[in-house]
Amino acid sequence: MFERLREDIQSVFHRDPAARNAFEVLTCYPGMHAIWIHRLSGALWGMGWKWLARLVSNFGRWLTGIEIHPGAKVGRRFFIDHGMGIVIGETAEIGDDVTLYQGVTLGGTSWNKGKRHPTLEDGVVVGAGAKVLGPFTVGAGAKVGSNAVVTKAVPAGATVVGIPGRIIMKSSDEQEAKRKAMAEKLGFDAYGVSEDMPDPVARAIGQLLDHLQAVDGRLEGMCGALKDLGSDYCAKDLPELRQEDFAEVKGEGDSPVGR
Ligand SMILES: CC(C)(COP(=O)(O)OP(=O)(O)OC[C@H]1O[C@@H](n2cnc3c(N)ncnc32)[C@H](O)[C@@H]1OP(=O)(O)O)[C@@H](O)C(=O)NCCC(=O)NCCS
Fold first, then answer.
1. Is residue 127 domain-resident?
2. What does the DSSP 8-state code read for residue 137?
3. Same domain (yes/no): 102, 214
4. What is the pLDDT along the chain (259 residues), one digit of tens a residue?
């Protein structure tokens, strides 16, 4: 539990240049409080204590102005900056390293039961006041501009702005977007691995990330095959990558979405 807490706090330092120390993050970041309360409400929801889960979630809303339905699935190092006026619907799914600013809605456009809210893949950033509405996917590393209204799927690495949301920048290459998401996971400056920056070390790291991704995919396939054969070899978790171990190589204040 403390490991997750440390990870949450580190994720704030990586994405908010205004954060000064861990005590400040623990006490003054409503986005963090909302996420912790959501972990409790989500656990209660999973155990079938639906009303209690809603009550806890509603308490979190009073406290922070951030409404996360207990049924919403949230990944690791989720960061809500400023908070207030955020709504995350029941069937929303949020990957790792996702950032939301104040006033964001991950909502639905229909009253049908079933999946009706968006899925945000790893590393997505949603700007202040943006509305992402419907059961589609916003691909890894995509950015949604402030005040955009997005009602259609967004490809990995793309930037969407305006009403209705239109793509202004599409990743030249989906591989590049996946690489960014993987690099973000490792705490490496994803923006360093681009064609505009012919740094040989950054390029070499980029190649390594591609290779790591390919090996990951191959391992996943092998684990699936082993499981089908009745083996529990892959049941054990791999050791976690700890973001703070990479902290020294991460640049500061280089996000296009910072304060
Ligand atoms: C969408 C966003 C990520 C794009 O950042 P970027 O990749 O650096 O892109 P640029 O700033 O170079 O803008 C590219 C173009 O999109 C336009 N644009 C950028 N953001 C826009 C927005 N939210 N709505 C409409 N147009 C936008 C720019 O005017 C520019 O247009 P031009 O090419 O005609 O000059 C960023 O503008 C944004 O909205 N980030 C969210 C920030 C936020 O919510 N911060 C809250 C802090 S409290």
1. yes
2. E
3. no
4. 778 888 999 999 988 989 899 999 999 999 999 999 999 999 999 999 999 999 999 999 999 999 999 999 999 999 999 999 999 999 999 999 999 999 999 999 988 889 999 999 999 999 999 999 999 999 999 999 999 999 999 999 999 999 999 999 766 556 666 666 776 666 555 444 444 445 667 767 877 888 888 888 888 888 888 888 888 878 777 777 666 666 555 444 445 444 4
Protein residue closest via CA to atom 17 of ligand 1: 161
Distance of alpha carbon 221 from alpha carbon 82, whole angstroms: 40
DSSP state of 163: T
Nearest residue by C-alpha to atom 20 in ligand 1:
145
Same structural domain, 81 and 18: yes
Please state, as a whole number, how many other Cβ atoms lie within 10 Å of the Cβ of residue 216: 11
- Between the CA of 158 and the centroid of ligand 1 the distance, in Å, is 12
Same structural domain for residues 178 and 161? no
pTM of the model: 0.72
- For residue 142, report the distance from its CA to the centre of ligand 1, in Å: 13
Provide φ and ψ at 159, rounded to 5°: -115, 130
Phi-psi map region of 71: left, alpha, beta (phi>0 left; psi -120 to 50 alpha): alpha
Considering its fold, how many domains does the chain have in total?
Answer: 2
Residues with CB under 6 A from ligand 1: 82, 101, 127-128, 143, 145-147, 159, 161-162, 168, 256-257, 259
Range of the domain at 44: 2-168
Verify that 124 and 25 share a domain, yes or no. yes
Q: Hey, which of 98, 104, 159, 171 would you mutate to test ligand 1's pocket, going by the most ligand atoms within 8 Å of its Cβ?
A: 159
